[in-house]
Amino acid sequence: MKPYFEENGIVIYNADCREVLPTLPEADAIITDPVWPDNRSTFFAHIIDPTQLFAEAAAQFRAKRLVVQLGCDSDPRFLIGVPRRFPFLRVCWLTYPRPSYKGRLLYTGDVAYAYGEWPIAKPGRAVIGGECISTRADYINTNTKPAKQKSYGMRGEGVTMHPAPRRTQHVLWLVSTFCDGLVIDPFCGSGTTLWAAFGGKA
């Protein structure tokens, strides 16, 4: 399968991850934010059963660790698709210092579920912490111009080009905490994991 992009250790495939995963080497970590089952975004309307999609992809995961990032309002029963060969490690809280809202829900941050082997201890990572607080919103691409992340539920002009971009500071922390080598994100979305794995800045 031919990559869509390949340069400086970064490889992007524009294809179904279930077809690509068997062709890839084992990763140090899979860090991903899959399509979640209770989303109401028309962006994902073509995906009939996100739970089955994730389970089928996860069955092909080959990595020492798996980190799945979800919103604080995503149903964690979705994670039943994580293969048993990945033992549960811990929950990580990815906090927003300035929450937004979705209807009556105060959106305080995201949640990451870590599985697999504990990463090797090293200076600054002798213990594995459980919270990362994002100190600022990212600048993100919109359909008009770059803008800071705002509350969920934006409509009309200036709406973000992806329905759920994750905070770069959070993903940088996940990468530095759980990975020392090859990172794979089967559900690339807006590319935040790619940026973080390549050493991007928040």
Would you kindly provide a written description of the structure presented here, covering whatever features stand out?
This protein is of the alpha/beta class and 202 residues long. The protein has one domain (5-133, 167-197): Vaccinia Virus protein VP39 (Rossmann fold), CATH 3.40.50. It contains 4 helices and 10 strands, in the order ββαβαββββββαβα. It has a 6-stranded mixed β-sheet. A two-stranded antiparallel sheet has the order 1-2. The longest helix is centred in the C-terminal third of the chain and has 11 residues, at 168-178. The protein is globular.
Keywords:
Rossmann fold, 10 strands, two-stranded antiparallel ribbon, alpha/beta, 202 residues, six-stranded mixed β-sheet
Write down how many β-strands occur, each being a DSSP E stretch of 2 or more residues: 10
Approximate helicity band: 10-25%
Q: Give the N-terminus to C-terminus distance in angstroms.
A: 32 Å
Our Rg estimate from Cα atoms comes to: 16 Å
| Beta-strand fraction estimate | 25-35%
Provide the succession of SSEs: EEHEHEEEEEEHEH
Instruction: Quickly count the domains.
Output: 1
What is the CATH superfamily?
Answer: Vaccinia Virus protein VP39
Helix/strand/pairing class, anyone? alpha/beta
What kind of sheet is the major sheet? 6 strands, mixed
Shape: globular
Q: Strand arrangement, largest sheet?
A: 7-5-6-4-3-10
Which second-level CATH architecture applies? Answer: 3-Layer(aba) Sandwich
The third-level CATH topology is Rossmann fold
Highest CATH level, the class = Alpha Beta
Mean residue pLDDT: 85
What count of helical segments does DSSP give?
Answer: 4
Q: Pick out the low-confidence regions.
A: 149-159
